[in-house]
Amino acid sequence: MLESVTCTLCGEELPPADGVIFDGRQLCRSCYEDHTVICDRCGERIWTDDDCGDENHTLCHDCMDRYYDHCADCGQLVPLEDLRYLPDEDEGDNGYCESCYNRLLQEQGVRSYCYKPEPIFYGSGNRYLGVELEIDGAGESDSNARIIRGVGNQAHEHIYVKHDGSLDDGLEIVSHPMTLAYHMSEMPWKEIVNKARQLGYTSHQAGTCGLHVHVNRSSLGDTYRQQDNTIARILFLVETF
Questions:
Q1: Helix, strand, coil proportions of the chain in percent (round to 5)?
Q2: Residue 174, strand partner residues
Q3: What string of pLDDT tens digits covers the 241 residues of the chain?
């Protein structure tokens, strides 16, 4: 007759056929089910205490390190490929879940001078104009930037606000590319300018500011030669007059 074996966790004696060897330890079936789990990613069975996941994921240490990280704001477990990074941060810096990313993006104030988001085109046509309006005199303030952006982006994400080192104490308001008709009829420039004035900013009167308008090259001609000829004529007019 075979001798019984003893579960190393609960001390129960049981027939050898009813025992399970796991991680070098003798366990009864009950303890085996209660104290071990299976990694959702690789399928390996691990001790429950070694589970690195959350209420929705069961993960071994290796899969956690290789495929997941925690949102830097709320702590939620997120697959590495789903982490989002704020525009002024590099991958390897703080990564965020989708919800925290969207909230923090809205809370951001003044972006860096090098910030350049994916352009959003507004209006229908072949010529799109992007405006950079410099304002000065009331501070390079995150709170002011959020206020101005809130006015401009009530309906759509029309503008963002950047640092500009040529200003004494101000901001640069940058629009996404829009047709002239959209700028004139849909874009809330009047409300943006009025809010900037209320906050204490000036532009032309400040003596430090510029107004820049970018145009898409493709609107200047069908070929690069036609585009270059159009650019040459523009330069001639500017230099002459």
A1: 35, 20, 45
A2: 132, 160
A3: 457 889 999 999 988 888 899 999 999 999 999 999 999 999 999 999 999 999 889 999 999 999 999 998 899 999 999 998 876 565 556 789 999 888 887 777 898 888 888 899 999 999 999 999 999 999 999 889 989 999 999 989 999 999 999 999 999 999 999 999 999 999 999 999 999 999 999 999 999 999 999 999 999 999 999 999 999 999 999 999 9
Q: Which CATH number fits domain 129-234: 3.30.70.100, 3.30.420.10, 3.10.129.10, 2.30.110.10?
A: 3.30.70.100
The answer to whether 125 touches 215, Cβ cutoff 8 Å, is: no
The answer to whether residues 213 and 203 touch, using CB atoms and an 8 Å cutoff, is no
Residues 6+ apart with CB under 8 A from 62: 42
- Pairing type for strands 171-175 and 77-79 reads unpaired
Tokens linked to 209: 């500011």
- Report the C-alpha gap between 166 and 39 in whole angstroms: 55
Q: Residue type at 233?
A: R
CA distance 59 to 151: 45
Domain borders along the chain are 5-50, 69-107, 129-234
